[in-house]
Write the structure tokens for this entry.
Amino acid sequence: MGMRDLAREVFFGENRFVMVPEGGARNVVDRLPEQIHAEKFLREVVPRDAMKYVRTLELVFPPFQTPSISPFKEWEDTLKAVREDLNFPKLTIRVCFADKRPYDEPGSQDEWFRLIMTKKEAMQIYGSYMRVVKPLGQLEGLGRLFVKVAWPWEWTEQGKWRIQEERERVQREVEDAEGRIERMVMGEEYE
């Protein structure tokens, strides 16, 4: 192994790569972007012969106002293109769906974010989370997957009350949703 290969192995193997969308992950967006930010990293930043060394990828998504209807064809194509090169048993992928900042400026576009949330709207948001993560199911033999979701009712009056009065129950609901998404990709036995 040459010095260049050794340097790539150390760099890509010992670092956690966190991919945050342009504009950051705390600003509310109308919908998820057409192109997932990890696509550029996997297609243009990591040399193909160094992908086998990548151990930790973290994908961070901003909070979105409405259920995403963005097509994920490019995301699926990117995963197909790189799946031969990644070392799945040693790879950990974390997917984080961020929430807004707790205190937005009065009058800001995010001030009214999800103050009203119906059960149907919340289920649509959970469905969007699943649409983003589902293509990872192509990565057979993936070592580990961790999903962190934002609870859609966080900013509603009832949600604020539930967090105060039923914190453990709310936490179980979130963990159950995260677990369902992880098992959708990794299989029912995954914990």
Summary: The mean pLDDT is 81.
